[in-house]
Known about the structure:
Elements: H1 2-20, H2 26-90, H3 93-165
Amino acid sequence: MKKINTITITASFMAAALLSSCGNNSQEHMGNAKEGIVETGKEVKEAAKDAREETILKSKEEWNRFKTESDSLILETQKQIDDLKFKIEKVDKSQREKLKARQKGLQQELNTQKQKLNQQYIKFDERAQQVEDSVTTKVESFKKEFEQDMERLKEAIKGFGESNEK
């Protein structure tokens, strides 16, 4: 975002310098300014694209890290519950049923957590796509607005140049 602001400010200063300059070199300055404006437009587009891609990439990386850690934790917990089954078989029959019921409750709770996590995986994938679509829409909107503003600036410069020639 700072890069976009810097580029925009630079373009503004270039335009102001162009508009304030007078004399025989005005045509040369206009040509240089036009080149600068085109280059600035390209840099703004690149900066917006880079910012969008960086945001999406960072979100995906963070989510994938969480997903990996969560999946690992679920596997570890499942192993612990499975180990309980073997321990329960070794206790005397009077406590076995009670412990089996507790173990089944733990398994159900883990299954619930697995479901929640899977639902979040699906939601994240949907949201990531929506973010990509939203950012793409915003970038396209910005591009159009920027191009219109640059076209108005070109016309103003052209008008300024024509008024100096008279």
